[in-house]
Amino acid sequence: MRVLIVNTSECTGGAAVAAKRLTQALINNGVKAKMLVCEKQTDALYVASCGPLLRIMRHFVWERFVIWATNLFSRRNLFEVSIANAGEDITRTSEFAEADIIHLHWTCQGMLSLSGIRKILRSGKPVVWTMHDMWPCTGICHHAHECNRYEEACGECRFLRFPGKKDLSHRVFERKRRIYSEGRLAFVAVSTWLAKRAAASALLQGRQVATIPNSLSLEKFRLSDRTDMRSLLHLSAKHVIAFGAARIDAPIKGFSYLKQALSLLVREKGYAPNDIHLLLFGNVKDAHTLDDISVPYTHLGLVRDESTLSQIYSASDVLVSSSLYETFGQTIIEAQACGCLPVSFDNSGQTDIISHRRNGYLARYLSPEDLAEGIDWCLHAHIDRHELRKIVLGRYSESKIAQQYIALYHQILKQKLPQ
User: Fold this and answer.
1) Beta carbons within 8 Å of 116's beta carbon, 6+ residues apart
2) pLDDT digits (tens, 9 = 90+) for 245-291
3) 20 to 30 Å CA-CA from 234: which of 73, 228, 284, 401?
């Protein structure tokens, strides 16, 4: 069986990390898997580029221009939506020709157009599409927030400056509906929360949405001695709290809630500021984001290699994920694999991973007070670090996740093409 994993980026972003780890997991479990991306960022032999970067950038710019013009040249919500009006024709590549299964992941921002997706489906090759956000089941948005119009036909889109019944979101939604009917197509959600939202979409009506979480290499994420790791990272505080994201100050990551929680720990929970050290990893666009943090902190910048991430998690008592929502929660299972307890809001994909007060803490949604309570609980919990790792091994190991996908591949290969 030959599988082609398709994702916009090789390494940047949560979907890229998940897609690449799955490619490696499939290879390690006997599948001939390759990854096709816009920009090859490493020397990995199983990763290929789908076309010239300049052409892909033109696709990206044209899509953003159309969205910008539709919103009468307002930049507001410019990157909250995608319309896939331009992209690469990957059916012309040798990687596509060799594949038995085409496995789509996150393909926006210049990778695939809707026309390109239609061409893939019309090729007759079965397609699996793993959803890392809500875009495959909505008209144009990546996250619908509290809106449920995708359950009917979109329209009246909150992300458009001039919403209406037949607006851009509705037109793209109807085009997706037509395209999805043209081939063998199976959808996968990375969490129960996302699967429920996807199943409610009119685009996926009558389709089964499988739930398969992201995988993790337990060889790469190791549990190391906490004292040794703190010495390596020059940390001397009594408690270490980690927080990380591709971009720390992205509004969806909820960093402001963590800052409020840290202030509450100092003001109301009896912690001296120097008792706690905040360990940050990820890019920051606005340097003022790191102002007014009530405890000492270290900002390590963007960290991609698993060895350094393992050191960060092993050195930390707690990982905080204060995102407004997560379709899965990759950093949470990484932290648990290294013996670090997670704290997260109780609202989305994280609830598949965290059992409240057993292997982490689920705080009330958007409550900095309960986030502080969760951090305090984790700092005093007596939970065996090796047990945390054992739970991750049982749920998210490469072998376990690869076998679930292999079973799905066999299932879709047996399906007949639509008439």
Assistant:
1) 87, 88, 89, 90, 91
2) 989 999 999 999 999 999 999 999 999 999 999 999 999 999 999 99
3) 284
Q: Do residues 157 and 173 lie in contact, with contact meaning Cβ atoms separated by under 8 Å?
A: no
What are the tokens at 395? 């749920």
- Measured CA to CA, the distance from residue 146 to residue 270 in angstroms comes to 37
* Cα 253 → chain centroid: 12
**What residue type is 130 in one-letter code?**
T
The CA distance from 412 to 127, in Å, is 8
Which residue, among 360, 361, 362, has the nearest Cα to 385 in the 3D structure?
Answer: 360
Mapping DSSP to helix (H, G, I), strand (E, B) and coil, where does residue 81 land? Answer: strand
Beta partners for residue 185, in sequence order: 127
Location of structure tokens 């609202």: 347
Do β-strands 297-299 and 127-131 pair in parallel, antiparallel, or remain unpaired?
A: unpaired
**How sure is the predictor about 419, in pLDDT bands with cuts at 50, 70 and 90?**
low
73-105 in b/e form (b: 16+ CB < 10 A) is eeeebeebbbbbbbbbebeebebbeebebbbbb
Measure CA 126 to chain center.
Answer: 24
- State yes or no: pLDDT of 392 exceeds 90: yes
- d(CA 116, CA 13) in angstroms, rounded, equals 23
In the β-sheet with 276-283, what is the strand arrangement from edge to edge?
A: 297-299, 276-283, 239-247, 318-321, 341-345, 361-363
User: Can you say how many angstroms the Cα of residue 148 is from the centroid of all Cα atoms in its chain?
Assistant: 21
- Look up residue 288 and give its DSSP letter: G
Closest to 417 in 3D by CA, of 176, 125, 132, 148: 125
DSSP symbol at 150? G
Following DSSP, what letter does each residue of 212-228 receive, concatenated? -PPPB-TTTS----HHH
Region of 337 please: left (phi>0), alpha (psi -120 to 50) or beta: alpha
